Amino acid sequence: MRHSNHTAIGRWTRVLVASAMGVTLATVVLSPSAGASGSSAPGVTSTGISIGATVPLTGPAAPGYDEIAPAMNAVFGWVDAHGGVDGRKISYNYLDDGYNPANTATLTRKLVLQDNVFATVGSLGTPTQAAVQGFLNSQKVPQLFVESGCNCWSNPKFPESFGWQPPYTVEGKVLGAYIKAHFAGEKVGYLSQGDEFGQDFIKGMDMEIPSASVVSRQTYDASTLAGPLSNQVAALKAAGAQVVAMATIPAATALAMLPAAAIGYQPQYVISNVGADAPTVGPLLSSFTQKGGGTAAQAKATAGLLNGVITDSYFAPESDVTNPWVKVETKLLTDYAPSLYAKSGLDGNTQYGIALGLTFVQALQAAGKNLTRAALISAIEGSGKKFVTPGFVPLSYSSSVHYGFQGLEVVKLSTTAPPAVTPSGSWIGGIAVSPVETTNVGSGPVVKYTGRTSTPPAKLASTS
Amino acid sequence: MTQPGPADHALDNISWLWRLRLPTQPLLRHLIFALCGVGILYLLTSLLSPYNDYEVGEIALYVIALAGLSLLTGMNGQISLGNGAFMAVGAYTMALLMTHTQLNFIVELLAAIGAAAVMGLLIGIPATRLKGPYLAGMTLLFALALPPIADKWSTTFGGDQGLTTTVPNAPGNINPEEWLAWIQIIGALITLVLLANLIQSRFGRSFRAVRDDEIAASLTGIHVARTKVLAFVISAGCAGLAGGFLGLSTGVVNTGEFPLTLSIQLLAAMVLGGTGSLMGMLWGAVLLVYLPQWSTSLSGYFNLGSGASAYLATIIFGAVLIVVMIAAPTGIQGGLRWTWRHISGSMSRPGAVIPPVSELPGGQSPHVPMR
């Protein structure tokens, strides 16, 4: 027994020595290969451009937001049908991250390291995209037009990152200035989501509204949002708030308005663009009412609570069917994303996707035939202000500003406006109650926009 | 619920080791296994693309988390739905230290383990009074309560964006994904060696004794409550390290990374791999990392919508869980062990080896009480 044990150790010593030698040999043979960025433009060939994104297609953030990437694809479909950009067709690979940053990190690495995408375009979410901002910038992969109003996309430390929609602080400032001008002396209460979205929005509000008029500041937690926000609403009512400014996601808007209506509290609502899209919030109001035991008639009636709500918009509302951009958007969806159009119609999210897709196509055009990542970035910084989009104001890109739109108009939802008609029904439309106004995330004043508003290029307007 | 782990087959193990001439001293044997693992994984990561390296690193970090859970549930019979939250504790600890100090990152990882272990102690003490679904409920509450805390003090914890983490620069021109994978693999191997030794030590025997019968265990002089708390602390420490590694992989630490589903997935992956087994956790981790991808390609193949693909992953996970539980109640590792024993048994000459005590399907020893 002793003897066999001894030989066992001896054999293992030999195995160890052998494997150590193997490892050493392998080190020599497989000397580390050169860095990943060998070719001038990964994802670009003479006939195609491969881009990617991560978006929530499932989970709590998916409803509504899952329409944006397919709507962008409608634009790319149109571009491909018309010969592509410089002969290159756009292949858009959007993956579902379920709004979980850990998934975003993995999938983004798959897109960049394995699928070799040229850029990420239109990825959604603050926590999710913040997770890959460092990685994408270290790999010099453009992180374009992040679907989030966080102030974090315009940061000199991250030159590859670009925001697109108005920063929440800009939204808060414009709406705050409107409250100060039109509801002077009235008591104001806040209801905001307890994260960056809510904080940035309220920060903007506080820059405009005198702190003495703010009587109550309520928050809710998005991750545990399950039932009516009765406590917050009761507190706002008790404080006597006559104007309630809300930085809420669509579900939270509905979960605040319903208990308020139940206790006979009817303040003037001023709601962030994110939480006031009538074709999204209307059905939620109805379905929550029905789940709470309401009749079908009551459910239908609750959508009327949106009448009189003040919100904002950075492009023409979908209900404005005579607007040339709305016509183009509808046409693009019916021709190049018919199944999406049958499901969602033209609403805030599909509009958003089309406008974002148009922005990216023009960035490619501006970058020219010799397409590289560096050329794309400098094209956006150099020509971004000239891109033609449905936005009321031009994009504000420059070498130091990576925010997109910084101009909005204040909109009132009203039964007198033409309704927004989508497959889910007919929803209250909006009418502008202010001129288009611009400002920045800093201390800049809210000023009236005096420039032109773009119209669709003839090719896009006349095309099929 | 509890299944016998590898050490329940001590007798089989020894005869098997004799046949392969492996040393019988646990520490030496485990170190040899670990060194072989290092060699194989070194070759693997050198040959693989950076993205595959990244995936190997992810597998390594889930192995750590699952091994800790396996110790708690498989060896000690306590169910936790809070290990995802322990991961968050570790990740935030590491990220906070990275943000505010210039400490060596190994120190930061050790602090992550320490902080999670302390949290494990705090949760473990009241948990000794609870069993089964009540214990699961309490740990679930912990997992639910943690994210709002990070949201509430958003200036400290970075809010939605979270806190960024940095991997120390790779030596030479090793690419960063391979370097990170290496850090995570070495962490996983150290964890496995330590846990494997622990399981075969006096503590491991106490864990199993408490799992099988608390009264009998206390009659033999084992301090039941202390043993249960210790299992919680070790399990939480493992989760803390895994959380730190997840933070390194992701590049940022925020609450979105640690949803409740993470804790539930860990539990399911542990059962799939083989509750109580350490090797089995490798299979569980592989499934955690690759199953979502496989299901995406599957749904692409069948031309399902991109929305359907995400639900497909959950459906497949559930289906695999059911199939494995029917075919191999001790998980994938149990099934493999059973198969291996049959193959090696039929190949060996009759009479050359003492037949193992438990030649039963699923590798269950008859002397372990089933519950």
Could you characterize the architecture of this molecule?
- Chain A is built from 16 helices and 16 strands.
- Chain A has 464 residues and is of the alpha/beta class.
- Chain A is globular.
- The termini of chain A are far apart.
- Residues 1-10 and 21-39 of chain A have low confidence and may be disordered.
- With 371 residues, chain B is mostly helical.
- Chain B has a single domain (16-281), classed as ABC transporter involved in vitamin B12 uptake, BtuC (Orthogonal Bundle), CATH 1.10.3470.
- In chain B, 72% of the residues lie in helices and 1% in strands.
- Chain B contains 15 helices and two strands.
- In chain B, helix 3 packs across helix 12 and helix 12 packs parallel to helix 15 (331-347).
- The longest helix of chain B is centred in the middle third of the chain and has 27 residues, at 224-250.
- The interface between A and B is large, with 59 and 56 residues.
Architecture blueprint of SSEs:
The complex is a heterodimer of chains A (464) and B (371).
Chain A: H1 2-29, E1 48-55, H2 62-65, H3 68-81, E2 89-96, H4 101-114, E3 120-121, H5 126-138, E4 143-146, E5 161-163, H6 168-182, E6 188-193, H7 196-208, E7 214-220, H8 230-238, E8 243-247, H9 250-262, E9 268-271, H10 278-291, H11 296-302, E10 310-313, H12 324-336, H13 338-344, H14 348-367, H15 373-383, E11 407-414, E12 420-422, E13 425-427, E14 429-432, E15 437-438, E16 447-448, H16 458-462
Parallel strand pairs in A: 1-2, 3-4, 4-5, 6-7, 6-8, 8-9
Antiparallel strand pairs in A: 10-11, 11-14, 11-15, 12-13, 15-16
Helix pairs in contact in A: 3-12, 3-14, 4-5, 6-7, 8-9, 9-10, 10-11, 12-13, 12-14, 14-15
Chain B: H1 10-20, H2 26-47, H3 50-75, H4 83-100, H5 105-127, H6 132-152, H7 154-157, E1 163-164, H8 176-199, H9 202-212, H10 214-219, H11 224-250, E2 252-253, H12 260-273, H13 280-301, H14 306-327, H15 331-347
Antiparallel strand pairs in B: 1-2
Helix pairs in contact in B: 2-8, 3-8, 3-11, 3-12, 3-13, 4-5, 4-6, 4-11, 5-11, 8-11, 9-11, 12-13, 12-14, 12-15, 13-14, 13-15
